[in-house]
Write a structure and sequence with these properties.
elongated
């Protein structure tokens, strides 16, 4: 990871910390395990116990869309075409 990428991530996480999501994921997993232990039901999922709103599923991006998105990142071009 370059210094400019690290700086970008530091700035992003200073503005939007991920601790709320991390705590929610940990407690949802714990609740799921406890419920499975007491009920014997193995079809449970931690997402059912999450308190945060669920994000909508995004459609998968094609390779071309991912490469186009990567062109605008810090540090210039991320790949060189094989021409």
């Amino acid at each position: 990871m370059s210094a400019s990428e690290f700086s970008g991530w530091s700035t992003f996480f200073a503005q939007t910390p991920f601790s709320d999501q991390l705590l929610d994921a940990e407690f949802a997993t714990m609740k799921e395990l406890i419920a499975a232990m007491f009920t014997g039901n193995n079809d449970l999922s931690a997402i059912n116990f999450s308190l945060l709103s669920q994000s909508e599923d995004e459609p998968d991006k094609t390779d071309e869309e991912l490469m186009l998105a990567g062109e605008g990142l810090f540090g210039g071009s991320r790949y060189v075409p094989a021409n």
